[in-house]
Design a protein that fits this description.
- There is one protein chain.
- By secondary structure, the protein is mostly helical.
- The chain has one domain (2-63): Helix Hairpins, CATH 1.10.287.
- Helices cover 81% and strands 0% of the residues.
- It is built from three helices and no strands.
- It has helices at 2-6, 9-32, 41-63.
């Protein structure tokens, strides 16, 4: 969590898009039934996405 808070907005947005594409790929693999080791990691990807969105929204609120 501290690592994310130290990142700039651009870095957070890049990380967010990376995680979203990873999650989408894992969901496709799951639906096809070919998912391997990443099935347990999906939960943590969703949580990381939520953490990043929370930090972005907190920063937007403080800028007002």
């Amino acid at each position: 969590m501290k690592d994310l808070r130290e990142m700039s907005d651009d870095e957070l947005n890049a990380k967010l898009s990376e995680l979203r594409s990873e999650l989408a790929h894992a969901q496709v693999e799951r639906s096809k039934g070919t998912i391997k080791k990443e099935s347990g990691r999906m939960k943590y990807m969703r949580r990381d996405i939520a953490r990043i969105l929370t930090i972005i929204n907190e920063r937007k609120r403080t800028k007002r």
